[in-house]
Structures are given as C-alpha cells and as structure tokens.
C-alpha cells in the first residue's frame, strides 16, 4: 500500500503560519508575533496532534524547520514532551534542500531535493505516513505541485495582518476536497483537505 504525505500546519484566520510556537522561531522580515499560538491553549488541538503521530513513521522538513527541530527535540526525550521527542529522534528525517553540502547531524537525517517529485514518490513506497510540519517554503512547493495527500490545518481565532502565509499572493490555483471539519476548544478549528487534480473552474453563479 502506498504511503501518504501529510502536511501539518498551525495557522491564523488570515492564513499566517510563521513562527506559531516561539518568539525566536522565525523572525524573517521583522515578524513580531512569534509564539502567537501560545495565547490560545487547546486540549483538542493537542489530542489531534497526538493522534496524528500514532502512525507517523517519517518526517519531511524544510531546512529552517529542521534546524529548529534538531536544536530542540533531541534534548526533550523525557518529561511532558518525551513522547514527541522520542518519536522525532527515532524516525527517519528527510530534509529538502538544494545545498549538497548541508550538514545534517541529527541521527537518521537525509537530504533530498535534487528531484523532489521522484524522491517523494520513493518516500511513499517506503513509509506509511510521512508528515511535513511547519516548513512553509517547502509546503508551498508541495501544494503548488500537488506532491501531498492531505493538508491538515489547525486554525486559530487570531488575525495578524502580516507574516508568511500558507497561500500567499501568487500561490498556484488548485482545487481541494474537504475531508473533515471539527471545532475544538478555545475557538480553534481542525480542517483536513485532499488535493483534487484539474484546473480551477470559473463561471457565473446561477447561470
């Protein structure tokens, strides 16, 4: 059975996915709202994230997110976050980068990126559930080229008005099919989509 590539993102109502978890996570372009997710604690989101990790057997990350994870998770394999830390430390980690000289010191890490489409096809043959977490630049490539099987968005009730978005101006037009929509605590929403091949159709309503 062919495996899946699942994109996991925390976003605001206006689609910002930059630096949800910490002030210094991603300060590109002077982004001042790092850690915006912390103001909206949600047990439902936590449970949903944990459930998704039950079948996770590989990570696919962009270079920036990989560096953040590599600097954090190997040092958090015990305590409240121990389950996540042990899982991330154990599973294979694939890093999308065009830099052939990239240094990947975290155990189980491999660079991909020479031919992303064929490499992701190979990952689907090798793994059951490959999760892409954060990694906005990589995500935009996967969305544009439909190199994914599921987009999981946890949407928070906040508007920031700036920051790197999941779908910025100029994003490739595409169709999606809603798999599920669930409201959680703290005003959060869980939205799951699958890609639908084909061009976006236009017309006039009612005609």
- Mean of all residue-level pLDDT scores: 93
Q: Structural class, judged by helices and strands?
A: alpha/beta
Oligomer: single chain
Largest sheet: 8 strands, mixed
Label the overall shape: globular
Distance between the termini: 43 Å
Helix content: 10-25%
What is the CATH architecture descriptor?
Answer: 3-Layer(aba) Sandwich
According to CATH, the fold-level topology is: Dihydrofolate Reductase, subunit A
Write the CATH homologous superfamily: Dihydrofolate Reductase, subunit A
- The helix-strand sequence is EHEHHEEHEHEEE
Q: In percent, how much strand structure appears in the residues?
A: 15-25%
- What is the total number of structural domains? 1
Number of alpha- plus pi-helical segments: 5
* Strand order across the largest sheet: 4-3-2-5-1-6-8-7
Number of strands: 8
Per CATH, the class reads Alpha Beta
Explain this structure to me?
It is a single chain. The protein is of the alpha/beta class and 207 residues long. It has one domain (4-161, 176-196): Dihydrofolate Reductase, subunit A. The chain is 24% helix and 25% strand. It has 5 helices and 8 strands, in the order βαβααββαβαβββ. The chain has helices spanning 43-52, 63-72, 82-90, 116-126, 136-144; strands at 4-12, 58-62, 93-96, 109-112, 129-133, 150-156, 175-183, 189-196. The longest helix has 11 residues, at 116-126. It starts with a strand and ends in an 11-residue tail after the last strand.
